[in-house]
Predict the structure.
Amino acid sequence: MNARQKLGNAVGPDAATAMRTSRNSWRLLGIMSEFVEGTERLSAVSPAVSVFGSARTKPDHPYFKLAEEIARQLSDAGFSVITGGGPGAMEAASKGAYYGKSKSIGLNILLPQEQAGNPYQDIAINFRHFFARKVMFVKFAAAYVVMPGGFGTLDEVMEALTLIQTGKTRRVPVIFVHSGFWGGLTDWIRDRLLEEGMISPEDMDLFQVIDEPEEIVAAIFKHYERRGFEPLATEQELLLNL
C-alpha cells in the first residue's frame, strides 16, 4: 500500500482530495495577500536600497558598525533602506536608516528561530513566504548592498543577479561590501564560472566590490547620473511581470 492509498483509506479519497484543494486554495490567498500588502505599502517609497546581511552579526562586530554607517549615509542621501527586519546586519542597517533622514523598512520573515523584528523600523511588513518577500526586495530597490552573510544572503543576492542577468528585472547596482569577505567568491566567479564558460564576460559587470560607505553611495549615484531613480516605462513593465 502506498501513501496515497493510506490517505484515502483514512479519510476517503474524495474527502482527502477536497482537503488538499481547500488547504492549497487558502494558502494561495495568503500568498496573494502578502503581495498585495507589500506592493501597496512600498509603492510610495522611492528611491530605496535593499541591504542584505547575516542575522548572526553581533552588535560589537565591525561588520555591524559598517552596515550601520552605510545605511546612515544612504538614508541621509535620500534613500529609504529596505532590510529583512531582523537582527544582526539587518538590525544595523535598520538602525542606521532609522536615525537618518529617510525611512527604515523591514520585511520581516516569520521563522521558528533567529528572526525577530528589530525596533528600528518606520515601516514593518510581515511575511510567511520567502519568495513573496524576495520579490519585494527586488521590485522596490534602486540598488542592492550586500554585507557579509550566510546562505540567506547568498540566496538573495544570487537571485537578484540571476533576474538582472536574464533580463527579468531592471539593471541596478549590486554592491558586495568588504573585499576581504567576498574576495574568494568573486575570484571563484571569475576563475571558474567565467573561465569555464558558465557566464558571459559582461556578467562580471553586474556587480561591484566596494569597502567604503562613501564610495558605495557614490557608485549608486553614478549609475543613475544620466537618468532618474524611477523605473523607465520598459522597466516598469518588467517589474509588473516579475
About this structure: The chain has a mean pLDDT of 89. The CA atoms of residues 73 and 214 lie 7 Å apart. The longest strand covers residues 104-109.
